[in-house]
Amino acid sequence: MSDRTGSDPGLGTADALAAASVSGGAIRSARRGRDRDGRDRDRRGPVAKLRRLGIGTSWPAKVSWVFLVAIVLVALAGPLLISADPVRQTSSAMLPFGSPGHLLGTDDLGRDELARLVHGARPLLFVAFASTALAAVIGTGVGLLAGYAGGVVEQVLMRVVDLALAFPSILLVILLVAAAGPGTTSLVVGVGVSLAPGLARLARALAARETARDYIVAARLGGTRTPRVLVQEILPNIAGPMVAQVVMTLSVAAGFAAGLSYLGLGIQPPTPDWGYMVQAGQEFLYSAPRLVVLPAALTLLFVVACNFVGDDLRDALDPKGTA
């Protein structure tokens, strides 16, 4: 008696087809698993996380983010990649675009224009970021305390803030810098102090709104100390709109820094700085407009990009708006 399982060709074909079907299903399942894993990895990527937050959804915001990152990278790494000395004077004065060894030409003293633009980004960004950080610390601290304490403390602090806001900011910066003397330190302090009142008013409004909420009332009734309530309870809940406003304040700080350098009250020569480069090149505006247009355009683009990024962060982190 023959073994039908081993000798029947029909049954063998069916077994082969079944095995092939199982194998094909396993391959498809594995492929779907790989695709799903790939999509999961994409969802876990930094770009996907930013998209879920709503950051960089519009094309102006995307361009602004790219420009800001590029400027920061140039300020940090650019001087290491440019071999030309930005303060070295040569006899090759007023060379035009595309000159050998000088891609953007030279200025009236024979200094390489590309090297000066690259090296000039760092002082401007340092002053802008440092003064904005100082303004954020002062303004947020005053606003938090005023909004949380209320009563006489709020009245006294906010009257001082209102008095500072009633004084023109640029004039206040000029007075502070002129009193302390021109230089990077006085510029940072002057710009930071002048920008702090605006952040203080926003922080006060946000802190007062949060102080009235149940979780703050419960924390106070539970005996939680004031510093802990301010730092661990209120500050994280107002961080979104505050970060957005701080980024927008960065553009104002950059404008003040460039303007004061243009007036001779900011970063002093021979250190390259975009504001001072505009002032030094204005007498050649018609014969060599690049000496003015390039640093002025970079400053303008940085200010505009900060405003677009600030708007983007505000929409993403505080979609309901602030009172």
Account of the protein in words:
By secondary structure, the protein is mainly alpha-helical. The chain has 12 helices and no strands.
Question: Are there runs of 5+ residues with pLDDT below 50, and where?
Answer: 1-11, 16-23, 39-43
Structural class: mainly alpha
Radius of gyration, whole Å: 30 Å
Inertia-based shape: elongated
What is the mean predicted local confidence, pLDDT? 81
Beta-strand proportion: under 5%
Helix content: over 70%
Question: What is the strand and helix layout of this fold?
Answer:
Layout: H1 4-7, H2 9-44, H3 46-53, H4 59-81, H5 113-149, H6 151-166, H7 169-180, H8 184-211, H9 214-221, H10 226-262, H11 274-281, H12 290-317
Helix pairs in contact: 4-5, 4-12, 5-6, 5-8, 5-10, 6-8, 7-8, 8-10, 9-10, 10-11, 10-12, 11-12
Note the main attributes of this structure:
single chain, disordered N terminus, 0% strand
Quick recap:
By secondary structure, this protein is mainly α. The protein is built from twelve helices and no strands. It is elongated.
